[in-house]
Amino acid sequence: xxxxxxxxxxxxxxxxxFDVHAAVARHADAVGPDAAALSExxxxxxxxxxxxxGLMGRHAxxxxxxxxxxxxxxxxxxxxxxxxxxxxxxxYRDLAAYPEVPGTLRALRxxxxxxxxxxxxxxxxxxxxxxxxxxxxxxDAVLSVEAARTFKTDPAAYRLATAHFAVAPEAVLxxxxxxxxxxxxxxxxxxxxxxxxxxxxxxxxxxxPERVVRSLDALL
Length: 220
Description:
- 44% of the residues lie in helices and 12% in strands.
- The protein is of the alpha/beta class.
C-alpha cells in the first residue's frame, strides 16, 4: 500500500479476528449433529437483532443480543441439551483468535501502523476476548460501538474510529470478514478489505472492497 495511506488499520472483531463458531465447536460432541446449524443460527440472529435495533434507533448491550440469539437457536434445535447454554456462553466470552491474527497485528505495528478493533461487541465482551486471545499488546485501541449507542453499519459507529485517531476516513484501512460491514465501511469512506475466509460470492456491488483476501496475513 502507498506510504501515504499507511496510517491506521482497524479490524472488526467477531468473525474477523475471533472465530465466532469456536464456541459451539468447543462443545460440538455434546451439542450433537445440530452443532453447525445451531452455530449458524446463533450468529445470524445475533446480527439480525443488532440491525433491527439500529433501524429502530434503539440500542442494547451486544452481550444481551448474544444471549437472546442463543436462546432462539436452542429453541430452533430442541434436541440440543439446554444445559449447554451456560457452557456455550462461557466459551463465547473466550473465543479463539484465528491463527494468523497475533502475528499480523504484531507485524503491522512493527511497520508503523496504529491498530485497533471497532466492534459491535460491548466493552466488557471485547476486553475479555482480547485478553483471552492475548491480543492486547498488539492493539492501540479497542473501540465499541456502545459509545455511539448504535451498531454498524450506522456511520456514527465508523466515526468512532476517525474521531479516536483524529484522521480522515480515507486514512483508515478497515478489515472485516462480514461483507455487509465492508459495504458500510466503503460508504463511510474507509479503505475496506474483505477477509473472505469462506470464498463467498460478492454482493453489495455499489460498495466494493478495495481488496479481497482469504486471511489477514495477506495484508502484510
